[in-house]
């Protein structure tokens, strides 16, 4: 068995599969593209689903990768166990309709045991398999595996809804009796018991069926193309090869742990309480990689996950005595550990550090707020004579403020309180059930479509033609190939086409198909890529078409031109965002339509009005410079050497198209563009908004639509000028400022009049003092314009010792406002108003000394005032 670094393990995996003619797929961005079923890329196969369901046919059916992934479904176990992580790397090899069971198992055994490769001892390997899968059992025997090392398990069948499924066979490494304190031996595997002795290092999934939830497993149909999907956990493999007790004692985590030792002054003890070290080392990896890939901390979705990870790590830092921001200091260490395969982390470390440090500083203030909240809760419990902090209160601190239960427990026990652990666990379980119920069900792959996957005829898209003649090579009606069609909808493939298939945010071309006599035979309403990459035209058939015949294909020129203007402007906008906001403002999605462009980008805060103005001006400057737009085709390495910007989520082949706009913008792009920026005419930002944590969106228009937007703004301004009697538009700001000042003066006078009126009312109201149960009170109906006026009465009541309690009600329109004020330690105002408010069909609450409520039944005001005495508690 070889001793290897993590970088060597990863590279050996990829090198081995290259010798077996596999294409190496680069690690994809952690943020899924066009997959709403996933919050994060959570496995090695997640980015390859399009190949497995047949919607796209890969150039090479054999693929291998090392894919970074994030899973947070069992975050509470991170640090408690030897192997749980929020971010991990999955090493995978995949066969899309090529080799299957025999080769996958044979090659897997070779990689693990050959002296040329990992050289693991054969007697340390155990395999589990699905009991009905005798073929896998026999394959392992043929490799020389002892039958006693082959364990049947009913759970070894992989399926997650409709789509590809099948048995799987898992490979375990036996770490020996030192990790088996109860000496249970092979029972640990046979009974599927969680243990530290037999470590699962690899799972080979044999996708051979189309799972159907409506059928029993025995009735699943065989896939037309069987697939292999495997996954080996890099962290586990490295731990075994480095002889580490847990994954955390490897070169993937130890440099981080050593730095935390320096910062905290504490020592990491592998055999002691080291959970905080592990949590910090794990979570900073997830944070660093996720931010490098464009995610940012926030209050929802991916952003909430990152915020929770950061806060959890910070709290564990506090347990180690670290009070100041420190996580950001670990970012460059993560980058150095992973630089051999992920150089982008070090390239972005300054930006990542900035985001994490800012979030740490914000959370420090949040901790203070949470502590204040807890103190208030404990104070109220003391007043009520209670000695237990209930589970819901603990959960609120955990969920809202990011407080670990241990911190809440420590602070509460310091003040003599017991902890409702059961209530907290119940609240946690309820939240998890809500999350599961609200989660997008998915992750499975679509059913394979043999008809579309079977299209192998070639088709070439011509960028330079808007009309051409072409031969109809494929006609599909009702998901079946046909020779002719005379009406209805059909899918068409031609040997060449001027129609652009929707891709890279650019919508598809529309247009018409004519026969050799010039007669209209079909309208094209959409164009998408077929699984093998051919433009697949969606056609509304108007008269007969036949395979093998020649037709004239003509796109809608006006539609194409307007889309090209928006697409070219998108490139300018992207460059302007970099210049104004920074290089981190990367594209996270786009849509180039006929009447507008939509551009999503990563950024950690709202774009200011001044920044938007700069961006808009910069784009228009490039338009007015009349920059030439040029496109060249070259290989990917040459394109990168030109400085071409590769867009997030796009896949690029060996040959790529590079779009240059003067010396202002260089991007890889397969879309269509204008010849010169001057053709865009005008650019106008219509809206900027947040669409998710760390992601902003700009809506903009070009040409006539931009002009229309400016005209609409001008018309609004003219309307305002007319209404405020300002003859000149240039005088509108000055005139509005003057009117606002007049309004402020009137409001000030109005407030003064209200206060005088309230004072007059108060003189008569506050003299009518009643007493009940030893408590003096004033209860009256008053005239008030709003709830604020009631607070004015209360302020005057506080100035003199009129009574112990004040209850006021005021009809306001068809509703009623109620105020209760109380001297300190007399009657809790919040409690009293909750008793009175239902009388006027309302509800409310507040602090012990001041509370308010709203109601919908003004006719019940007298009843409410009459009920005050009965609802007062006995004094003393």
UniProtKB/TrEMBL annotation:
<dbReference type="Pfam" id="PF07973">
    <property type="entry name" value="tRNA_SAD"/>
</dbReference>
<feature type="binding site">
    <location>
        <position position="567"/>
    </location>
    <ligand>
        <name>Zn(2+)</name>
    </ligand>
</feature>
<dbReference type="GO" id="GO:0016740">
    <property type="term" value="F:transferase activity"/>
</dbReference>
<keyword id="KW-0963">Cytoplasm</keyword>
<keyword id="KW-0436">Ligase</keyword>
<dbReference type="InterPro" id="IPR045864">
    <property type="entry name" value="aa-tRNA-synth_II/BPL/LPL"/>
</dbReference>
<dbReference type="InterPro" id="IPR018165">
    <property type="entry name" value="Ala-tRNA-synth_IIc_core"/>
</dbReference>
<comment type="similarity">
    <text>Belongs to the class-II aminoacyl-tRNA synthetase family.</text>
</comment>
<dbReference type="GO" id="GO:0000049">
    <property type="term" value="F:tRNA binding"/>
</dbReference>
<dbReference type="GO" id="GO:0005524">
    <property type="term" value="F:ATP binding"/>
</dbReference>
<dbReference type="GO" id="GO:0005829">
    <property type="term" value="C:cytosol"/>
</dbReference>
<keyword id="KW-0648">Protein biosynthesis</keyword>
<feature type="binding site">
    <location>
        <position position="669"/>
    </location>
    <ligand>
        <name>Zn(2+)</name>
    </ligand>
</feature>
<keyword id="KW-0694">RNA-binding</keyword>
<dbReference type="InterPro" id="IPR012947">
    <property type="entry name" value="tRNA_SAD"/>
</dbReference>
<dbReference type="GO" id="GO:0008270">
    <property type="term" value="F:zinc ion binding"/>
</dbReference>
<dbReference type="GO" id="GO:0006419">
    <property type="term" value="P:alanyl-tRNA aminoacylation"/>
</dbReference>
<feature type="binding site">
    <location>
        <position position="673"/>
    </location>
    <ligand>
        <name>Zn(2+)</name>
    </ligand>
</feature>
<dbReference type="InterPro" id="IPR050058">
    <property type="entry name" value="Ala-tRNA_ligase"/>
</dbReference>
<dbReference type="InterPro" id="IPR003156">
    <property type="entry name" value="DHHA1_dom"/>
</dbReference>
<feature type="domain" description="Alanyl-transfer RNA synthetases family profile">
    <location>
        <begin position="4"/>
        <end position="712"/>
    </location>
</feature>
<keyword id="KW-0030">Aminoacyl-tRNA synthetase</keyword>
<dbReference type="Pfam" id="PF02272">
    <property type="entry name" value="DHHA1"/>
</dbReference>
<dbReference type="InterPro" id="IPR018163">
    <property type="entry name" value="Thr/Ala-tRNA-synth_IIc_edit"/>
</dbReference>
<keyword id="KW-0862">Zinc</keyword>
<dbReference type="InterPro" id="IPR018164">
    <property type="entry name" value="Ala-tRNA-synth_IIc_N"/>
</dbReference>
<feature type="coiled-coil region">
    <location>
        <begin position="736"/>
        <end position="763"/>
    </location>
</feature>
<keyword id="KW-0175">Coiled coil</keyword>
<comment type="function">
    <text>Catalyzes the attachment of alanine to tRNA(Ala) in a two-step reaction: alanine is first activated by ATP to form Ala-AMP and then transferred to the acceptor end of tRNA(Ala). Also edits incorrectly charged Ser-tRNA(Ala) and Gly-tRNA(Ala) via its editing domain.</text>
</comment>
<dbReference type="GO" id="GO:0004813">
    <property type="term" value="F:alanine-tRNA ligase activity"/>
</dbReference>
<keyword id="KW-0820">tRNA-binding</keyword>
<dbReference type="GO" id="GO:0002161">
    <property type="term" value="F:aminoacyl-tRNA deacylase activity"/>
</dbReference>
<dbReference type="InterPro" id="IPR002318">
    <property type="entry name" value="Ala-tRNA-lgiase_IIc"/>
</dbReference>
<dbReference type="GO" id="GO:0140096">
    <property type="term" value="F:catalytic activity, acting on a protein"/>
</dbReference>
<keyword id="KW-0479">Metal-binding</keyword>
<feature type="binding site">
    <location>
        <position position="571"/>
    </location>
    <ligand>
        <name>Zn(2+)</name>
    </ligand>
</feature>
<protein>
    <recommendedName>
        <fullName>Alanine--tRNA ligase</fullName>
        <ecNumber>6.1.1.7</ecNumber>
    </recommendedName>
</protein>
<dbReference type="Pfam" id="PF01411">
    <property type="entry name" value="tRNA-synt_2c"/>
</dbReference>
<dbReference type="InterPro" id="IPR023033">
    <property type="entry name" value="Ala_tRNA_ligase_euk/bac"/>
</dbReference>
<dbReference type="InterPro" id="IPR009000">
    <property type="entry name" value="Transl_B-barrel_sf"/>
</dbReference>
<dbReference type="InterPro" id="IPR018162">
    <property type="entry name" value="Ala-tRNA-ligase_IIc_anticod-bd"/>
</dbReference>
<keyword id="KW-0547">Nucleotide-binding</keyword>
